UniProtKB/TrEMBL annotation:
Domain Histidine kinase: 470-669
Protein's organism: Candidatus Nitrohelix vancouverensis
EC code: 2.7.13.3
Known catalytic reactions: ATP + protein L-histidine = ADP + protein N-phospho-L-histidine
Annotated protein name in UniProt: Oxygen sensor histidine kinase NreB
Source lineage: Bacteria, Pseudomonadati, Nitrospinota/Tectimicrobiota group, Nitrospinota, Nitrospinia
Length: 670
């Protein structure tokens, strides 16, 4: 095994050199001058070289030179003087050549040693650099692995709370943090940060007080670690919590175990929705690479929260849509109920079953409606703080009230017990019921007015019919008799004129003219009397009167008219006979005025307990707008006559395809 010269103490070499010097000097003193024994002093330089001591080499050379010179004076004589001097010179030359060679060797060894040392330093530095690079690579691999794990986790279809707990655990594991916690913004994006009950704690018992303290701290932007992160919009590291003036929790005894901390923002787009914070139980220096990684992870976690928020928004929208559907369904059904009902009592008796399902919590909903002193729905509502109501007003006068309540308070905030849309719906219901009540009131008043008008119309018709009969009778009895007497008087004058010798042709012609005019007047008088009240209707009945009216129509217009009267039609009440005659007469008059028909078909039959009269022509038809035109007095009169008798009147037709008039009257009153 080679000896390591650097491990031999320097005094050993010096001791050997001293001993060698003494021995060589003694030999030089013993041997005669002719012997070249001074060269042995070169050994001292070799010993200096072995010791790697430049000083020892030079000292050895100088000491050898001095002792060689001294030996010249004290050594025994021998040989010639010039040979002795040459020997001494050779010895000194040998000593210095050896010293120079040793110095050369020493310098070369020193240079080699320096080179070796430099190489060792380079190797050490390179090794240190490689180790640092390895550690940095391992750290970055850990960072990348964490980034990958969190990216995979946030894309899994799991609960957001599980994702956040996983992130807290993994980040704490990587950073060697003992505590991890989450703050989320109030209303998602506000500057007010609220503590969540989502934690990672290495020792729950040790940090229990700190947890309770944190869960009671709400931070505004710029206040505390979460607020500072929110304000700066970037990760923040606090190396000494106790010396940071903007760390309120550091002033509590519960925070004494927390020495350092860092936090980073959670972004959704360009908005901060939360802050994750981590705490160390020992002072920890800031790690810029870790903070950069946390910034990226904050974006990843933000995507998970955004997906969660989107799902919540979608669920909220679906719930809202379901509520809107319930409300619109209620409003639609109430509108249908109002349209098909004939009274407020019908509506209010059925409306409760439509209202209850429209509210958020139908199982808790009770409804009471009061209208004109009558109660519908729940007669007695339980005492409740969850109640809403709206009046039912008719023409600015409150006639009722709709009250809706929950029998117990739902587990929601006070401002969400009743929705704004529910309040709007309730107001609409009050207005709709008020409008319906107003309409029914108006309809009753209108129906009453119509009854009064119809009674007045029928009374006028009866009066007119009676007046016609009276006028026809008086014309026939009084005026007809007067004209007949006048005609008899003219006949007597004519006879007198013919029997007299003084009679003239002119008087006879005048009398004949007057008699002709009286005959025409009597005929016209009979026609007017017939129109006012057909004499044949009283004498021969309705059937003959209809036939006579048909013949007059055919003779006057040339239009073919087929009249069919069923044998089952019984003898009718005079008033009903007059009604059918007047309707038939008005129908034929309208055909003459408007139809331009070439053929008319008339059916008068018995149909069960009713009589039906159908008049159909092949004329130009009738416009739909004229069927119920209030200015069509003829049609209105016919309709009123038939309705007074409790019958049915209808008119139908298509332009270019003719018109049909149909009446049906019951036989119960005949």
């Amino acid at each position: 095994m080679p000896i390591n010269r650097s491990s031999i103490p320097p005094f050993v070499y010096y001791s050997i050199a001293c001993l060698a010097t003494v021995v060589i000097f003694v030999i030089d003193l013993v041997l005669p001058l002719g012997v070249v024994d001074g060269s042995l002093y070169a050994v001292l330089s070799l010993i200096g070289l072995l010791a790697l001591d430049k000083k020892l080499i030079l000292v050895g050379a100088i000491l050898g030179t001095v002792l060689t010179v001294i030996g010249y004076f004290f050594s025994p004589e021998g040989g010639e003087i010039w040979k002795v001097l040459i020997n001494r010179g050779i010895s000194i030359f040998t000593v210095w050549m050896m010293a120079l060679l040793c110095l050369k060797k020493f310098n070369a060894s020193m240079d080699l040693k320096r080179i070796h040392m430099n190489q060792d330093d380079l190797i050490t530095e390179r090794t240190r650099s490689l180790n640092e690079a390895k550690l940095d690579l391992e750290k970055k691999n850990h960072y990348l692995e964490l980034h990958k794990q969190i990216a995979e986790k946030v894309n899994e279809e799991i609960e957001i709370e599980d994702i956040l707990k996983f992130c807290l655990y993994k980040i704490s594991e990587l950073s060697n943090a003992q505590v991890g916690h989450l703050y989320l913004a109030e209303d998602r994006y506000s500057s007010r940060l609220l503590p969540e009950k989502i934690w990672y704690m290495e020792d729950e018992e040790e940090y229990k007080d700190f947890r309770e303290l944190t869960e009671h701290h709400i931070f505004e932007s710029g206040i505390g670690l979460p607020g500072l992160v929110h304000e700066s919009r970037k990760p923040v590291w606090i190396e000494q919590v106790s010396k940071d003036i903007n760390f309120p929790r550091a002033h509590h005894q519960d925070s004494l175990s927390i020495k350092s901390c860092f936090a980073f923002p959670i972004f959704i787009g360009d908005k901060i929705t939360g802050v994750m914070e981590f705490f160390f139980s020992r002072p920890t220096n800031s790690d810029s690479d870790l903070l950069e990684l946390m910034h990226q992870i904050g974006v990843q976690i933000g995507r998970a929260l955004e997906r969660c928020f989107s799902a919540e928004d979608m669920e909220t929208i679906l719930i809202s849509l379901r509520e809107r559907v319930k409300e619109l369904t209620c409003m639609s059904e109430v509108a249908k109920l109002i349209n098909r009902s004939s009274s407020m009592d019908d509506i209010l008796s059925s409306i409760e079953s439509l209202l209850i399902p429209a509210w958020q919590y139908p199982e808790l909903t009770r409804v009471r409606i009061t209208f004109d002193g009558k109660i519908y729905g729940s007669e007695c509502l339980p005492p409740s703080d969850c109640m809403m109501s709206t009046p039912i007003a008719v023409e600015d006068k409150v006639r009722g009230m709709i009250e809706v309540c929950y029998i117990e308070k739902p587990s929601v905030p006070d401002d969400q017990v009743f929705l704004v849309e529910e309040n709007s719906m309730l107001v609409w219901l009050g207005q709709a019921l008020g409008s319906a009540a107003s309409r029914f009131t108006g309809a009753l008043e209108l129906a009453d007015s119509n009854v009064k008008l119809r009674n007045l119309y029928n009374q006028l018709e009866n009066v007119r019919e009676e007046e016609r009969t009276r006028i026809a009778r008086e014309i026939h009895d009084e005026l007809g008799q007067a004209l007949t007497i006048s005609k008899l008087d003219l006949s007597w004058l004519k006879q007198k004129n013919l029997g007299s010798s003084n009679g003239t042709k002119d008087i006879e012609d005048k009398i004949n003219y007057m008699m002709t005019h009286i005959d025409r007047t009597i005929e016209e008088l009979n026609r007017i009397t017939s129109e006012l009240r057909p004499h044949v209707l009283n004498v021969m009945g309705l059937f003959e009167t209809l036939k006579l009216e048909t013949e007059k129509f055919v003779n006057a217009t040339g239009v073919k008219c087929d009249l069919h009267i069923s044998d089952q039609v019984p003898t009718l009440h005079p008033d009903l006979s007059t009604l059918i005659y007047r309707v038939y007469q008005e129908t034929l008059t309208n055909i003459v005025k408007h139809s331009r028909a070439k053929h008319v078909d008339v059916q008068f039959v018995k149909n069960g307990s009713s009589l039906t009269l159908t008049v159909k022509d092949d004329g130009k038809g009738i416009e739909p707008s004229r069927m119920y035109n209030s200015n069509s007095f003829g049609l209105t009169g016919m309709r009123e006559r038939v309705m007074e008798w409790g019958g049915e009147f209808s008119i139908s037709g298509t332009p270019g395809e003719g018109t049909q008039v149909y009446i049906s009257v019951p036989l119960l009153n005949t």
